[in-house]
Write a structure and sequence with these properties.
This protein is mainly alpha-helical. Helix content is about 65%, strand content about 5%.
Length: about 575
Amino acid sequence: MKDRWTMKLSARQLFIAFFCISIVLGIFHAVASRDAINPDGIAYIEVAQSYVRGDWQSALSAYWSPLYAWLIALVFLIVQPPLAWELSVVHGLNFLIFICSFFAFHFLLNELEKSSNAQETKIPFILVRLVGYCTFLISSLGLIRIALVTPDMLVAVFVYLSAGLSVRFCRNTDVGSAILLGAVLALGYFAKTILFPLGLIFLVALALSVRFRWSHILKIGLALFIFLSISSLYIITLSKNRGYLTIGDSGPLVYNLQVNRVPSLVHWQGDALSGVPSHATRKVMDAPTIFEFRSPAGGTYAPWFDPAYWNQGMEPYFDWGNQLRAFTRNTKGLYLLTVYYFSPIVFLLFIFFWLSECSVLQFAKRIFSRRTLTIPALCALAVYFSISVEGRYVAPFLALLWIAILTEVSVSKNLDQKKVVHALVMGAATAFCFLVVLFSANDMRDSFPVFVGQSMAESRHEQIARGLRGLGVNAGDEVGVISQYVAGFESYWAHLAGVRIVAELPSNEANAYWFANDKTKDDVLKTFKKTGIRAVIMEDMRSPKPLAGWQRLGDTPYYVYLISQ
């Protein structure tokens, strides 16, 4: 009884310790990234604002998943932040989602411990918890990251909850767990489209994990019914809005972009293989290329506010050469990601396999016994492996896989297990803690001035927006951009200034502009003027001195050319 109480107390202490660590590190990451923004983040913020305005026609997107935008909209309605604090509020939301993901992961660990078979050869579950919490911190703070304004941290919440409820159902096979699982799987689909097919895979894995009885099958069928019923509410609404049946269009578009190397989802003009666009951006100049894109699609930068609209007509196609090249890239990417972020647990599992004195087949069979975790994790990794391996996409599934393996490994009975296992796990946990600190060091440094009360410098985007207003470019005006490194979809300054980008000389044409003669450069400005815009904003002027008529915006490398009306 005393040993059992000690183990429970240790587990509780471990939870409190890692919860406090998660809060502290999460705050550092959120504060350090308070002004960080990415192209997807701009789109999610503007979709959320469409919901706040009640503009459902613009808000319903076949590319951007709805739940993250709903949460941003809800926070905006409650807090009503000024533009200057908008990003800070969004990163505050990311921090709260991160904490929710910690509780979801803790729930998964609790369910695994309740369902685990106590065997002398298995490592104590308190050590599984130790490595599990470290794995969570690495995957959440190192791969998904609070700095990124994307729904991937939200995806992790529902992946962990789905796995935990699946484990609970295998133990209890009760109706309540089935209903909860169906609802969580549906919310996961709202968080990201890929979780719709993965939701079905979770249920298949569950059916393969329980003893065959009609009562069990009926309860899993109930979970499926709940899942499809809730999901269909959004699927029907979205399909009516788009005019065709869809659960979301991001998958086919991303496949063409990542595997078939369609040049871009912005300014896609169609070709013999990928199809013909229904709503193409309009090419108004050939050399260098300039595109104009006024449309019913909303947002600061319409081509990225609704990629599904501008790429309607794009058809995914299969090419063995393209697919094999994608496999090669993704093999390298997955290897580097695993070695860089999860080397301690890989080394630990290798040592456990060596000490287990079992064959590879026996080891694999033991690991695969956790079907509720391994099947969804491996299926998700297979999908991303065939398209694009990116840390924030695969992080929760790698965490599931590592935990599933760790709960089933064993060591030889002939070894002094207590000393050997404790030494190995503590060594791995120490290495993980070092990695967590390493990945958080920059954020700790960057957030320190805020904690000591030093004034926060104005961001580049704020300087550009203020500079434009000072020169008479007002909210509601339309502008064009000449991009050197990034396209218009990274122009958060336009969102802050309230202007719309409706014409662009994209980044892949920037060199053609800079190496052109003066007449061509004049023709570029004349072409922009014909589109009816108020100004042209240029990123990083490549000239020893500013060109005539261009004015620098603050201390940034951005310049503006005002067009007389």
